[in-house]
């Protein structure tokens, strides 16, 4: 029936004797609903003996013959328990011999191991107590003994369960969250005003992101979502629940709106409730998937409208007739993550492409908008236009989600998309052994692929003009996520197709004014582009040196340290928020930012060796933009080392640069 039992023998090892384990497994509608094993191993996952018995039964379904031994089984049962079962056995035997009895009117017989009825809930067996104990143990170790890695493996297991559409995914995440909320360190840190460790904070971020995936399940029942919402609100109301941005409340818009609305827009930020790591999941409970345009996007590769005119800001289709999806970008990307997490990779890919096409169209519109007002803006030389919400470093990691979704689609060994392998023979292959240009979607330009789209959206996100967020953790997260994304890009070796994307985006970013972090005029508190520009510079240098230097020199500025930088005007284009002027920012990561600025300058000095004109331009940029005497002195040392390398004659121009930079800081050291 629905019950399986057996003995599993574990062979003897040099230091261990042979062991025999008794295993029992119950089933219900293709799921293992309970397990017991005499081995006594305590773990979240099934022991090897349970797995062995299950595989044996799957591979050898006819190994055990019951019919031949059924009579013997009955006789032994009556012999051992004759006083208890003999009257019942005689009664049943009489009924079987009577052709008109009720037993003979029914085919088959009742199965005491048949499990629950068809209407009852059923799910895979999960040892809830063991999950709680393990999470509690890992948390108590405080990041030592690989506990952080173990917790991340548990989160990965939750994602695996969601992908397999296993209802235990939400159950397991609930158990994990309850232990996180019960961690005694939360109260201690709150009382002492101490920040939690960075690695522990990242675990909370992943916890919040997973709950977003849970509640955005496109096929979850309303009662499920209501139950999750109730639980999330309960956790959210606890005093020690971690805030979304670390130690500070923030003024970010909520999940479903790009800008604050109504009374909340004018409310003093100090009176607003703090956004916790669960706030976005709570807001996501209000989202749905019933929009017909959205349904058409995710369900078909053929959804087009070639007669549609691309003349309105929120057009459903672009000039190619391809679908667009206008939604708060992090929210739209959270949908992509939810689709991927719940085992809908093709639907996630379709939505990701629609979002990237929307971002590219928005980029073009912003460029046109800036050109229309360029003369006036350059005359003023200042702007208060900025994006309050950056996509790189965002709690929902929208750019990372799009990048990963598109990269997964062009992995050579990705089984989910193996159907596209037929295209690869006739396509140019990226030098990377892991990825290929797969042209498997019609909503792309000629010559474009998932790989080019992934690279382009990463460049768009990294180059987005955005204001530096408040708080140490939020600022560190911006730096960390930027470096992580660049690290992923560096794994892809550039071919001619990708170099065209780099050129295209570099030109866009240089010409887009306040809408780009590399625009001519940007807000004083914009996140600096030094790290990103260094990557752009080294990538473009072998292919377009002029564009590479132009990009890097533009990025050298650090306006927040410019004492003469005006606060800005209050005019702003549509869809872009204005920040309050004259607010001196608290940049906790300023020392890291200045070191990245110094690295960018050093990279340009190295590349410009032997080129008098370029060295002069780089020197001028250093003297104008770098304000730290220690960094100027370091650059003087770097220039001297580069000029006097053993394998070549000294570079006189570079030695002069070194001397000039050294003399610039010499009076300060004398003082």
UniProtKB/TrEMBL annotation:
InterPro entries: Znf_SWIM (IPR007527). GO terms for molecular function: zinc ion binding. Residues 21-58 form the SWIM-type domain. The keyword Zinc applies. GO terms for cellular component: Cul2-RING ubiquitin ligase complex. Keywords: Metal-binding, Zinc, Zinc-finger. PROSITE patterns: ZF_SWIM (PS50966). This is Zinc finger SWIM domain-containing protein 6.
